[in-house]
Amino acid sequence: MIEVKDVYKKFGRKPVLKGVSFTAEKGKITALIGINGVGKTTIMNAIMALTPINKGEILINGEKLHKGSFEKITFIPDAITMLPSMKIKDAMQFMDDFYDSWNQERANELLSFFRLKESDKIADLSKGNTAKVNLLLGLALDVDFLLMDEPFSGIDIFSREQIAEVFTSHLIEDRGVIITTHEINDIEHLLDKVVLLDNGVVLKEFNTEEMREKEGKSVIDVMREVYRS
Amino acid sequence: MKRFGKLVHFEFNRFFKIYLVLIGITILSQIIGIIVESTNYINLANKSMYEDHVSLKQFIEENGMMSFAHIGPSLWLLAPIAIVAVSLLFYMIFIWYRDWLGKNTFIYRLLMLPTNRISVFAAKATTILLYTFGMIAIQLVLFQVDAQLLKWIVPDEFRFDMTTREMIQTFDFIGLVFPYSFTEFIIHYGLGMIVVSVVFTMILLERSFRLKGILFAVLYGAAAVLVFILPILLNYLVFNEYLYPGELIIAEIITAFIVLVSSIWTSHYLLNKKIRV
To answer: What residues form the membrane-spanning segments (chain B) (predicted)?
Structure first.
């Protein structure tokens, strides 16, 4: 489980996170939702120790992040984390060189699923294919948790559909996913949990199935209710 | 350790093409320099002896014998060495910033590797050191090539052959890069590694605290220099040259070690606790 406990973060004098707390469990898809600038990416970066927090605690399976944690959790930012000069096969080789959790079989499966050619150079890929390679590099790791920052951002509808398909496939299986997205329509039915953020605080945290069953509301209904009030 | 080796290999390859160009410029410039300078000398000798009827002895008295000492201090040799030195100094900074400011933020990947983050620092520092040693090794080979070229172009009676050591000693600037003894080697390159560590720490301070970090970096750099030269300052300004040179060197080694360890420790702390992507 990922536990974000009472996290505060300021950039200069501007507070971005003001006591954010939530949990994300293994085997569940948790979405962090909010308008631009509410601190979704900052939370992701904080979980991966890519930005320091001013107060609070973040635990992964009950432990603070350490070097071994990167074999258990991975972050797929909204931009690819490999050099433009690399070919896809170089990027995969890089991952294989450094991660014990790299699963080459799964990588090959993802290559054919996304219809990518490993000889293609990253710099020459379209935005959609770049997003797919980025996803491939994260999904081919045998990790417990995947953090995805805006995986649908700025890509065409066909690529979006293909990426959304991943969430229903065995490629996610029983892993825990935290996703930030604006494109809620594509994956609303897949979400297990939603954390609504605004102005650096959690406005509402709810289980989507319970919400549907008990109150008959979809994620979008709750978003309308919370953000319009 | 295996991962560290791979990281060094990866970092090394990232600059390798530019490095090859720098090597190419150095080789070409020196070879062209030897050919041009030697040919000019021979042409001058021919003109003096055949047209102006100057004797060999008189010509050599007036112009000296042709040797590497004629070419060593010339731009043919100095310019490429300066270009390489400036490029490596620039790369010492670029090696970090390219990971943040490039088209794709590769720093995400480097900081998410399942290794100690300080190994990223160590791999980058090792890369700079390897490039420097590589360049020195190439220059040592080039000295032999230069000497051979001189032998081919300039006849024996006009030429003074120099050993590699004499070639290095032709001017002080090269002596910095090619130390004369093992102790000097340790001092020069130890100092080089300390400079690299301090500059890396300054960059990490800026990357961690951004605008405020520039101030911290300047203060850190100034403090590092102050700590390093503290024994010299104290010896001359306070203790009236109380320390023997040997004692001063020991004091310098201690302060250099303090600067190096504090830079590595600070960088380790920044990479783990303060860094921002």
So the answer is: 16-36, 75-97, 118-142, 186-205, 217-237, 249-271
Q: What is the ipTM score, two decimals?
A: 0.93
The verdict on A159 touching B (C-beta cutoff 8 Å) is: no
CB neighbour class for B110 (10 Å; exposed up to 12, middle 13-18, buried from 19)? buried
Token couple for B154: 């300039």
Among chain B, residues having any CB pair with chain A shorter than 8 Å are 3, 6-7, 10, 14, 102-106, 108-109, 111-117, 208, 272-277
Q: pTM of the predicted model, to two decimals? A: 0.91
In chain A, beta strands by DSSP E: 2-11, 14-24, 29-33, 55-60, 73-76, 145-149, 176-180, 193-198, 201-207
Query: Smallest Cα–Cα separation from A79: which of A114, A127, A120?
Result: A127
CA distances from A35 to A8, A14, A21, A109, B56 (A): 18, 17, 18, 34, 88
Contacts of B104 in chain A (CB under 8 A): 79-84, 122
Q: CA–CA distance from B254 to each of A168, B250, B251 (Å)?
A: 61, 6, 5
Closest residue, chain B, to A72 (C-alpha): B114
CATH of the domain spanning A2-228: 3.40.50.300
How far does the CA of residue A10 sit from the closest CA of chain B (Å)?
A: 12
Contacts of A70 in chain B (CB under 8 A): 112-114
